[in-house]
Each structure stands twice: as structure tokens, then as C-alpha cells.
Fold this sequence. Notes:
The complex is a heterodimer.
Chain A: H1 3-19, H2 21-49, H3 56-63, H4 69-75, H5 80-92, H6 96-110, H7 112-118, H8 122-126, H9 132-170, H10 178-203, H11 209-232, H12 239-263, H13 266-273
Chain B: E1 2-13, E2 16-27, E3 31-35, H1 42-49, E4 57-62, H2 71-77, E5 78-81, H3 93-103, H4 110-119, H5 135-147, E6 153-157, H6 165-182, E7 185-190, H7 193-196, E8 202-207, E9 210-215, H8 217-224, E10 228-233, E11 248-252, E12 255-260, H9 266-274, E13 281-285, H10 289-301
Parallel strand pairs in B: 3-7, 3-8, 5-6, 6-7
Antiparallel strand pairs in B: 1-2, 1-4, 8-9, 10-12, 10-13, 11-12
Helix pairs in contact in B: 3-4, 8-10
Amino acid sequence: MNKQAIWAVAKKDMLAIKESIQIWLPILILPIVFCLVLPAGLILAIKYFGNAGNVDQIISLLEQLPPGSIRDSILQWDEQNLQILYFFLVYLFAPFFLMIPVMISSVVAASSFVGEKERKTLESLLYTPIDIASLFWGKLLSAFIPAIGLTLISALGYMLVVNILSYDLFGQFIFPQANWLVLIFWVVPTVSLFAIFLNVYVSARVKGFQEAYQLGGLVILPIIALFVSQMAGIMFFSSLVLGALGFIMLVVDLFLVYKTTKDFDRNRLFMSQVK
Amino acid sequence: MAVIQLKNVTKYYGQHAAVDNLSMNVEQGQIVGLLGPNGSGKTTTIRLINGVISPDAGSINVLGLDPATDGDRVRAKSGVLTESAGLYEGMTAKDNLKFFAALYGLKYVEERIEQLLEDFGLADAQDKLVGAYSTGMKKRLGIARALLHKPEILFLDEPTNGLDPEGSRSLLNYIRRLNEEKGVTILICTHLLKQVQDLCHSFVFIDQGRFLEQGTLIELEDKYLGAVKVEVETPLDVNEANFPDFPVIDQRPGYLVFQVQDKEQIPQLLAAVLAKAPVYSGNILGRDLEALYFKIRGEQDE
């Protein structure tokens, strides 16, 4: 492993993200919509119109919540509108902050090896004395840093916007919350790593960017769907469950590190990617 | 001393042997031309020597190292210009060189980069994106990149492809200087035989991944030239040029073309002509690399 080379690759790829609108547009739109437009719209709707549209289903969902800290935290508010708002802001929006890093890391990682191949630069890269492990770590960092960085900024922005806009409704700042900290600092990094590994793995084995992106998406989407459905059920959104989830992802990540470094050697990468 | 040795090397792409039982040597400090038609295995040979792909059979030794197991050490001592130059078009020339310098683990490279950009006439364009470069500029930058870490062996894959005559000439001159002044061993792959005829010390001919022949121009001539055609510039009338050993096989105003059995007979021929008329010049025909190339390939086919 060669730190100088790892950082050189990561830096180069992160600068390259800037160059490609195909990459940075979804990267920027997603966080802005999720962490600014949606929560602000919801808070303002409740503040000025007294309700957020048809909420009967949500109310019945809230009434069916099993006893426990989640139910208690929602029912601490007397008004139904505040219960719904709190439910949305603290529980329902949380999975967005898992989707942001997964999206970003998938888009960036999918283009990593395939991008080098399409620019015909992989060959000259492999002719340098950089070891394959360093190359992989560089590629990995180039997706991980923007994914984590943007998620952190988005989450901070979200909490700030929510706190400021909803202070007069709740009479207190509702963020930060313990389960959110576990989500952002423990689950987001491990899940992002998982998405990156899958995409790097896939893109090092396929022919073009489109194919890599689609294949990567195929792997990622069911996982996202699973997360979103479970999270939306909010039964599992406790610090303990999140902690366990992060731990499982970490174990899977470590396995993927082992598998990736074992499966890829220069000869194999070259034969599959360079014509 | 041979710095590159291949022994019975074979490499398959699927069912197809891109390199087939190839053995060859490259001596230290030489410029060697690796010649063959498209698809003959030249590029694959460079890849094998640099350990970016592994041979399916045979052994390779580069500077005392096995590139299949010690590839990073081999690559730290070799520089490669690939056919597509392999540069990042979204980056400036300077940033490209800085990036590759980091991969080679080089430190304090500013001066080296300035010098290379200067040497290759790219100093003024160093902050332009490489995507806006001409083919010639890309090739020059590609060579500058290959030389960043002062390699002991330089591999050039079709270095003059896409260059205009001036660009080709200055590039070939630079290659020659690099070899003479720094003693860099250079392997050039090309099918532009005329360009490398005077540049290379020796030549390796391959076809369909197989070794055909190796030697200096003189050695190859001795082996393949056989009966020699000599064009003599003389006012001698063709009817008077009746030398039994040296038949006239062609003529044009002021020139006669004689056939002799081998080079050793040329002085006798010239003496015979001189006895009858003045001789202004004499020239062996068909001795250029291209003619030899076709002879060698033709002979292997038979």
C-alpha cells in the first residue's frame, strides 16, 4: 500500500467529478430536495395551513404504534398536527440520509474503473508501479469522501432548517437526536462503503459506464427498498437496531475488502478492461 | 548484457495465442526495433515485459527481475508510451505529470516537470487541458510522462503514429539523444520501417506472435540479401557492358543495374566498368529495411 499513490488517485477522481455534469447533478439535486425543500415545505404547510393534506392514514398508523420510546416520543405532543410533523421530521425523513450517500457513492464508484477504461487511461495507470490494492483504495476514497461529506453537510443543513423553522411550533429544538447521530456517524459510513465496494467490483468487471451504473443500481435498489420499507415502518429506528445494522454492514464490508483484494490482480484487471 | 530476455513465452487471449513461443533479447543501451504487421503481438509483448499481464508459458527476465512476480519493481524502472498516449484529457499537462509522478512515488518533482515540459516544447501549453492538445502534443506529453522517473528502459508503441513529418523527425532525434546521452535502452514497436531504419541498432521481427528473426541491419543483409543488384551511375553503353559474371538486368539513361552473386564481388564489377568508362556512383538496391522485412517474412512463409 502506497499512501501517496492512494491519495493521488482519490484526489484526481474527486476533481474529475466536477467535470462531469452527469455525475454532479444528481449529487447536488438529491440533498437539496431532501434536506431543504421537503422539510421546509412540510413545516410551513402545517404552520400556515394547519395541516399537511390528507393525513388520516398517518394518524391511524400512529395510533397503531406499539408501546415504547418511539410511541412515547411522538405522543409527547398534544396536537395531532405536531405528532404528524414530528413523525415525519424525525422518523420518516431519516432514510433519505441513507439514500444520499448510497446514491453518491454508487454514481461515483460506478464510473471509477469504467471511466478510466473509457478514457483509455487505465492502461497507462497499470503501467505505473502502483499496486492494485492502492488503486482500489484510491478509487474507494474518491467515492467515500464526497458521499460522507455531502451527507454530513446535508444532515447538518437539515437539522438546522428544521430547528429554526419548527422552533415556535414545538417550543424547543428537536435536533440533534441520539438515533440520528448513530445513523449519520455509524450506519451511513458502513452502508456507503458497502455500496462503493459493490459498484467498484461491478465496474471493474463490465464493459461500459451505462452497464456498470445499471448493474450497480440493480444491486443497490433492492437494498434501498428494504431499508426504506423497514425504516418507514419505524419499528426498527432505534439506536440499538441502527447500531446492530451498522455492525452487520461493517462485517459485510470487511468480507468485501478481503474478496476484492483477493479477486483482483493486475493481469485479471488488464485482461478484462484493456483492449 | 541483456536487460530484457524472453524465453519461449506464450500468451493466450482466449483461444488465440497473441504471443506464441517467443524468445528474444534486448541488450543494454541499445535501441531495438520490434517490427511486425498489425496484430503480430508487439503490444502484447510490451505488456508481458512490464508485467501488466502474465505469460501462460515461458519465462521473462527484465533487469534481473521477473515481471510477473516483481512487476512493481520492473515498472519503477521502465517507462511506456502506449499507442493512445493514455493521458487525462480533463486535466492540464502539468497536472497529468504531477499525478503520474505521485504514482511513481516521486517527490520534489516541480523542477523535473518544468524541464520535461521545456524539452518537449510544451512549456507554453502546460496549463491547457490535454483534451485541447493536438495528436503530436499528446504524444510528446506521453513520452514526457514515460520519462518522469528516469527509467532505464523505455518502451515506445507506435510513437510516430499520427505525427507529421516534422513531429516524427524531432521525436526520433530526441529518442536518439536520450539513448546516446543517458544510455537508456529503448524498444520501439512500429510498422513504419523507413523511420527506424537508421535509428535502431538492431531489429526483432515477429509475426502472428512468433519470432521470425533478430539482428543488426548488416547481419540481416548478409543473411538475406543473397544475389545483389547494383545500380552504377556510368555513361557506359549497355552493349559494351558485356561482363559474363555480371549481367545487366536493368537500365535507364546514365545508369546500369548489374546483378552480382554477393557483396564481395562489387569491387570487381566496379573495376570492370571503370576499365571502359567513368563511374560516378554505385548503389546496392533493395538493401533497405523494408526490402529485408519482406524477404524475411517471405522466407518464413515458405
